[in-house]
Amino acid sequence: MEILQVKQIHKIYGEKENKVYALRDVSFSVEQGEFIAIVGTSGSGKSTLLNLIGGLDTPARGQIIIRGHDIASLKRKELTIFRRRNIGFVFQNYSLMPVLNVYDNVALPVTFDRGKHVDHGYIRELLKELGLWEKRKRYPSELSGGQQQRVALARALANKPALVLADEPTGNLDSSTTVEVMGLLKESSRKYHQTILMVTHNEALAQACDRIIRIEDGRLYCAAGKDGGWL
Q1: Long-range CB contacts (within 8 A, 24+) of 208-214
Q2: Which one, 1, 72, 131, 171, has the greatest CB density within 10 A?
Q3: Does residue 10 lie in a domain region?
Q4: d(Cα 197, Cα 90) in Å, to the nearest integer?
């Protein structure tokens, strides 16, 4: 089942002689449960694409359809609610709330959306699965980088979103922790049938994904499987 369709997306910054085409005519679709790497050199447009899919920015032209909704056509309040319920974010710098403990950081997006109607059983399952249950009362400053990234992953999954968008999620981690976090992402994709799009510059990490989308100079270069074949 297609959960994401990106149709002829263009993104332009600036005007006239300062006009820059960040993305040009980008189109692809994603099936539920896929774990996709988005790769490209610095400035190629990969993070811009992730921001557009996440509703953090709007395209100049084209459509981004998630679960049948064209997010570019939603009003600001509608988009905020839709994003909260359907998209989970994992950032390179973790973006955890320093004044909240692990459990409350993970439950935060659900609390925003549903108030007191939090599925505590599901959050407990997530924290146990990610090896964080014993640290649920700790604060971010008391955790290692790898532990903080696991908390960020649990928070991204807490609302059972349609998509998890990960922007260089291992960029600040050492090699052993990078392998650990990648394993957790793959396991989350498998266990929860979760769809993950991950921006990375690391070719080895990209090869571990189901499919690789390459972007260069704002254009889709290819959307191939791990063996290089076209999908």
Answers
A1: 208/182, 209/35, 209/36, 209/37, 210/34, 210/35, 210/36, 211/34, 211/35, 211/36, 211/37, 212/36, 212/37, 212/39, 213/28, 213/36, 213/37, 213/38, 213/39, 214/39, 214/40
A2: 72
A3: no
A4: 10
- Single out the residue of 74, 55, 82, 63 nearest to residue 165, CA to CA: 55
Domain count, the chain: 1
Report how far residue 225's alpha carbon sits from residue 223's, in angstroms, rounded to the nearest whole number. 7
| pTM for the structure as a whole | 0.87
pLDDT digits (tens, 9 = 90+) for 154-199: 999 888 888 999 998 888 888 888 888 888 888 888 888 889 999 9
Domain assignment present for residue 68? The answer is no
Q: Is 198 helix (H, G, I), strand (E, B) or coil?
A: strand
Cβ-based neighbours of 67, under 8 Å, separated by 6 or more? 3, 86, 162
CATH code at position 200: 3.40.50.300
Half-sphere exposure of 26 (CA within 13 A, CB side): 32
Mean per-residue pLDDT of the chain: 88
Give the DSSP H or E segment for 149: helix 145-157
Q: Which residues of the chain have pLDDT under 70?
A: 114-116, 222-231
| Token reading at 46 | 């990969």
Domain enclosing residue 134, as ranges: 34-59+80-225
> 23 forms bridges with which residues in the sheet?
11
The answer to whether residue 112 sits within a structural domain is yes
Three-state DSSP class for residue 98? coil
Q: Which residues contact 76 (CB under 8 A, 6 or more apart)?
A: none
